[in-house]
Amino acid sequence: MTALHTYKNLAIIALLTLTWGCKLTQPIEHNSGISTPQSFSGQIDSTGIGSLNWKTVFPDNRLSALIDTALLNNPDLKIAVQRIEMARSGIMQAQGALLPSVTGEVSGGGRKFGNYTMDGVGNYDTNFSENINNDRRIPGPFLPDYFVGVRSAWELDIWGKLKTRRKAAYNRLLATEKARHVIITGLIAQVASKYFTLVALDNELDIIRKNILLQESAVETVKIQKEGGRATELAVKQFTAQMINTKSLEVETQQKIVATENELNLLLGRFPAPILRTNLSEQTFPEQIKSGIPANMLRRRPDIQQAQLEMQAYYSDQQAAQLAFLPSLNITALLGFNSFKSSLLFSPASIAYGAAAGLAAPIINRKGLKANQKRSEAESKAALYKYDKAIFTGFQEVSTGLKRLENTKKILSLKTQEVEVLQEGVAISKDLFLSGYASYLEVIIAQRNVLDAELTLTDIKRTQFIALTDLYRALGGGWEQDK
């Protein structure tokens, strides 16, 4: 009767444990409350440049060759590939946890039992039994123990805890793949930006050298006028100082070209070398740029997809942390040869096998599991906020990029007009100076203004191309060709 009551009590405790544990299997729900706009700045286009191949967006063959080289040799991309392999090993580890583990074992040991113990008395008494032969007599007082065979352990995934961990590992693998896509989109934009910067610097260098020639001619002219008594030494000094200042700009621009080439070579994964490039005048800019609809951007932009996958992985971690409170069913087994005499170890009579199964659940001192649960909940919420931030960042970058392109186009038109007017002003000021109707200061100011305006115009053109590359990246363009 006592034994029956004991079994009933154990059954009640197990039932209570299971019931209590089942209440913990529901992770904290959290849903993104972001309601995204239906369009970017009022534009409603089904397709945008983000869906185009980067070779279509950047038709320059030399730029295409540089991007191909970067996608092949860039160190950051190589690191990303290894991170994918690390994540793939996490899946293998999680998959292996679902299967039984089998280990081979060759072991030997021994011990001496006390004479006044159950084992000591039992071993001593057994040797006097008439039912055993000499092979089965226990050696003493030191009792050896030899084993050759296999042992197995297996946790049955009755609650789905191990499968949940495998799901988390799989989502992290997908997230690392998206992280590689983030690097690809950023790399294409970086290479294109550096390339357009080089092209613009080349154009600036041409403008500076052209102005140096004009200023050298002006210096010679004012020297001749000085000899004829129509100009002073001060005028000669002012024109010469302006020419020297422009020559210093030439050296500064050359240094910028070297630095930009080296930065681009780093992206290409190679040592400093000259970069082949075309002229700014040969670059073509798309007549019409469409952004597409936000839904496409959300699906295409890899950093948003990465954040979503990481959020799902942490959500699975949270589930697994709560499932850890439930009882686990473990099965152990062994099969091999076991003997206390080495000479008899591989005898058929020494074959030993066994199996055991048991349910184990944490009851007392569960602080470690609770701490893991709290941490996983916090990580899951942080991943949600990171996902929300990625969405906000995507919309902000696209909106800023569209406005930047629009305003840059207006500025470019105005600056082009300004340069044309100032170039005409230089010619007029030179004629007036030669005829005595303008001072040398007016000529110097006119030359300085046209140089500044031409350099600014070149920088605006560079900004326009970089704005295009930034918008292309913001819309998630570039990585899909890597599939």
Automatic annotation (TrEMBL):
Pfam families: OEP. It comes from the Bacteria. Its main location: membrane. GO terms for molecular function: efflux transmembrane transporter activity. It is a lipid-anchor. Keywords: Lipoprotein, Membrane, Palmitate, Transmembrane, Transmembrane beta strand. One of its GO terms (cellular component) is plasma membrane. The keyword GTP-binding does not apply. InterPro entries: MdtP/NodT-like, OMP_efflux. Gene3D superfamilies: Outer membrane efflux proteins (OEP). Transmembrane segments: none annotated. It is found in: Cell membrane. The keyword Lipoprotein applies. Belongs to the outer membrane factor (OMF) (TC 1.B.17) family. This is TolC family protein.
